[in-house]
Amino acid sequence: MGCSSSKEVRNSNETLAAASKVTSATENGKTDDEFIEAVVCQESDIGENQMKQVELGEGKVLLVRQNGKLSAIGNKCSHYGAMLVTGALGEGRVRCPWHGACFNVETGDIEDFPGMDSLPCYRVTVGDGGEVKVRAKRTELATNKRTRVMAKRETADERTYVVIGGGPSGATCAETLRQEGFTGRVILINKEPCLPYDRVKVSKTMDMVLDKCLLRTQQFYDDNDIEVMLGTEVTKLDGATREITLDNGYKIRYEKAYIATGSKPRRPPIEGADLRNVCVLRTAADAKLVNEQLGPEKKVVILGTSFIGLEAAAYCVGKVGKVTVIGRGAVPLKESFGDAIGRRVMALFQEKGVEFVMNSGIQKCEGEEGAVKQVELTDGTKLDADICIFGIGSTLYTEFLEGSGITLNRNGSINTDQYLETNVEGVYVGGDIANAPVHSNDGQQATIGHYPLAQYHGRVAALNMAGKATPLNAVPFFWTVLFGKSFRYCGYGNPDEVIIEGDLEALKFVAFYIGKAGRVIGMSSCQRDPVVAQFAEYSSQGKVLHKDDLRPNPLGWIPS
After folding, report:
1. Which of 24, 177, 208, 494 is deepest in the core (most CB within 10 A)?
2. Cβ pair 113, 101 in contact under 8 A
3. pLDDT the model gives residue 5
4. Per-residue confidence (pLDDT) for residue 79, from 0 to 100
5. Rounded to an integer, what is the distance from CA 430 to the centroid of its chain?
6. How many CB atoms lie within 10 A of CB 531?
7. Domains of the chain by range and CATH?
């Protein structure tokens, strides 16, 4: 059922019935068991390139007018439920203000991520008197989510496509193959002993319940003929013979493969790094291990001032006796947000009781009975530690590809073309391990470990594997939540200058990252939604913002 508007002849119940195989709703807000239909506003209430949230029965709908056409879709982002009316309207799609997911305004299909589900779309009609009427299925109005139709496996189709890696990228690729009509065998291979889950929660909410964080259930994979191999590792790939070998000795021949094996946390090569309660945070099992050790008298030492380290510190500080963060540089998050914002974030953490030791590191972990008890810093200072967490970056899971014919870069990443295909025909890569073109960076290749980008890679790879040539149009977008404050960033590159507009002390600001020739290469914000989402849409359309465009009004580039 389409979402677009049409002029409606009064009392045209026959027309409505003919448009659907199910019984239509009656007029004037009366409903049958399956549908509801009612006038939600007047056509004059919504202008061109505007969005309006309207009530329909007990639910709400997002109404959009663009190119003279009215459309209606679900009103909330299918990821974490942000109200899309507060997001950014682009060309034919709306972008979530929180995390950057995008939805087609006419179909509701998800086009950029995070999230797994599309939005329902509803029928819109306009009466002779300008009354706008929306017709919706009750179940879709209640759930505000829609799973796209999947193709079924056909035994006559002997092709096998393998997806190596059970993170968000692999999971998205596997189901997109079915959504795009692939009827051969789809195999999703996951090294972890569990179904794909929302990995973002690992460092943010360590008390996560895994079953509630799954991206899809086993029933979903069964229903859509997607074979899932859990707790299984690929040990070898032969690009010439198109064959993979598993750690159980099993071999699988494939026609096409997608590799999204991600990264593994780095442990420093120091004495005591393998002691009990010396942890990293990458998997649900890692989060569970740390969370089980927390207690009012415990002392936690965290090495690293990355997002992982700071998110872990924010989670732990109210649950333990002391949290100390050790940083190699002078300011946390300087590489991501700049010096001034990094210092303000550091002050926020100190206000909450987190202690910092900067320009330092850990040279030894000391223990008793196999468990860590102290850490020794690079200047010889010793700190008591019942738990030590390393958050100092990661290395890429690509060693198994040595000798495969796929060219590996020195850091383990893999170069791709704009379709995510490697130098070996039929083998695609995405997520953390892909050194792929970035649309908002003039198409230059970059290796970026962002959750939404990994999902986007999975979708684009699947489209190309299914024979639907789709180039990357990537605009990196990431976020973090620290003590209830949401920080968002869009863009890529190392700036020469950072311009901050707003009140940094109050954590209500927008920051512009200025690169070569005065180009705005990135933007961050806190408590200023949806400006970063608006910049993401601006960049995705191929537009370029310069420093001069920020004068006199730094937000003057945003459509009114």
Report:
1. 177
2. yes
3. 63
4. 96
5. 13
6. 22
7. 35-143 (2.102.10.10), 160-264+396-466 (3.50.50.60), 278-392 (3.50.50.60), 484-550 (3.30.390.30)
Token readout for 525 is: 């914000």
Q: Kindly report whether the peptide bond that precedes residue 114 is cis, defined as omega within 30 degrees of 0.
A: yes
Q: Do the Cβ atoms of 464 and 419 come closer than 8 Å?
A: yes
Is residue 491 within 8 A of residue 439, CB to CB? The reply is no
Sign of the dihedral defined by the CA atoms of residues 531, 532, 538, 541, in that order: negative
State the sign of the Cα–Cα–Cα–Cα dihedral 125, 130, 133, 134. positive
- Closest alpha carbon to 123 in 3, 212, 206: 3
User: Residue 19: is its pLDDT beyond 60?
Assistant: no
| Residue 281 region by backbone torsions, left for phi larger than 0, else alpha for psi between -120 and 50, else beta | beta
107: which residues sit within 8 A by CB, 6+ positions away? 3, 73, 118, 121
**What is the spatial distance between Cα 299 and Cα 323, in angstroms, rounded to a whole number?**
6
**Is the pTM higher than 0.70?**
yes
Cis peptide before 552 (omega within 30 of 0): yes
Q: Is 397 helix (H, G, I), strand (E, B) or coil?
A: coil
Q: Quick check: 377 pLDDT over 90? A: yes
Q: Identify which has the larger pLDDT, 19 or 278.
A: 278
Which tokens go with 391? 């958050």
Helix (H/G/I), strand (E/B), else coil: 187? strand
- The lowest-confidence range among 6-20, 310-324, 386-400, 411-425 is 6-20
For the chain, give the mean pLDDT: 94
**Count of Cβ atoms closer than 10 Å to residue 162 Cβ:** 26
Query: 267 vs 165, 248, 323, 388, 432, CA distance in Å?
Result: 22, 27, 20, 11, 18
Distance between CA atoms of 123 and 20, rounded to whole angstroms? 10
- pLDDT band at 560, cuts 50/70/90? confident
User: For the ranges 19-28, 47-56, 482-491, which has the lowest average pLDDT?
Assistant: 19-28
Which 8-state DSSP code applies to residue 25?
P
User: Where on the phi/psi map is residue 169: left (φ > 0), alpha (ψ -120 to 50), or beta?
Assistant: alpha
Is-contact 178 225, C-beta < 8 A? yes
Residue 559: the pLDDT is 86
C-alpha distances (whole Å) from 304 to each of 267, 360, 389 are: 11, 10, 9
How much is the average pLDDT of 307-311? Answer: 97
Q: List strand residue ranges (DSSP E) for 49-159, in order.
A: 50-56, 59-66, 69-74, 88-89, 93-95, 102-104, 110-112, 121-126, 131-137
Angle at 483 between CA 478 and CA 487, to 5 degrees: 25
* Percent of the chain whose predicted confidence (pLDDT) is above 70: 94
